[in-house]
Each structure stands twice: as structure tokens, then as C-alpha cells.
Amino acid sequence: MRSARRFGLIGAALVVGLFAGGGVAMATNPNGVASLGSASFTKGAQAPVSVASLAPCDVDGQQTNSSAAVVKPGVTFGGGTSSCTRTVTDPENDVTTTRSTATGKNFELSVLLSAGGPRIKLASYTVTCNATQTGTNAGWSFSGMSGISGLPQQIPNNYVAHVKKTNGTVLADVTVNEVMLPDPNDGSIALNLMHFHFLPASGISGELVIGATACAPTP
């Protein structure tokens, strides 16, 4: 089963059981990972902009991480932390749970300004993925957003917002609350808070992710 719940205006969560469906199909998700985001785009003839996954953590590898602010032409990730932990809840039977989370701040996207688009800002954001033996749940929250308008009060999975010029030309599509489920379903889930895809009218090619996490049911 799947159910959604809200954290006020700025958050949502998704619960996935072993037989849930209805997200974007993908391969099996990792046991528990999270990061602040990443970017890979090119504006016209300028040098490509690349930001590797920031402050990545992994329950099977580096369990805590952090990043200072990263400033590149057209985009700033203001830094943040991540934590991916495994907790033993029943030692006699080796039962565990996992929690993977990343929290970032002061994100700013300015690359669309020269194309007549807005400056996009997020003051803070968090993504989280929790897993037990019976399923997973993923959630997000953000505050202090500007530059993207018209988001609904209740944001469904894989909601696509359009970043436009004042004349209505769409410069980028942004998938908010992007949920990816494996096919066939195994109860795991991946979540991106926001996933930008730049469109030809912007003069930019590539994509950018703010807040990423994934987890799978524990054994």
C-alpha cells in the first residue's frame, strides 16, 4: 500500500509496502543513501558546469558526511550534512532499520536569468528515507523558496512545475517530489526533492537535482 501525509505546507512523505506500484520504474534501489544534490549542465558555448553528488552517505559505506558551500557559474549549493544509519532493533534475530537523510541550505539557481527566467532560491531543505523489514517511507521538506510559482497545496508524486519567462516561454521543467520505484517492485524507493530539466528555449542543456535519497527494506 502507499499513503501520503503532509508536514504542513512544505513537506510530504510516501510509504511503500512490498506490493506498491505507481512511481517511475527503475532498478532496485540501494539499502540506504542520501545526498544534498548534484548538477550537470551546459549553457551555450560556455564550459560545462558539473557538481558531483554532494555530501553523499551510505548505510553500507560512509555513514556521515558534510559539504561546505559549492559555488559554480549559475548555481550555488550552500552546504549541509547527511547521515545514513542502521539500527539493530532485535539483536537475537538480527532485525534492523535504516534512516538516510540529507539537509541542505541556501541553494540558488541563477543560470536562467540571462534567458529571461527567475532566480530560484531555497533557504533550507531535507530529504529522508526510512526502511524496515516490511517496507520503506520517504519524505521531504523545504522552506524559503522563491522563483517557482503555482505549486499546489498538496504536491503529488512526480508533480511537474514549469519555470517560465514573463512571456510564458517555458525554460525548464522541474519534477517536484520525484518518486522512483523498482520494476518489479521490491518495496524500495528513491526520492528527489526537485529535479530540473533545462529546455531548448533556455539555451541550456542538462539537469540538476536538489536533495536525493533512496532506501530498501531491511533483511
TrEMBL record:
It comes from the Bacteria. This is Uncharacterized protein. It comes from Solihabitans fulvus.
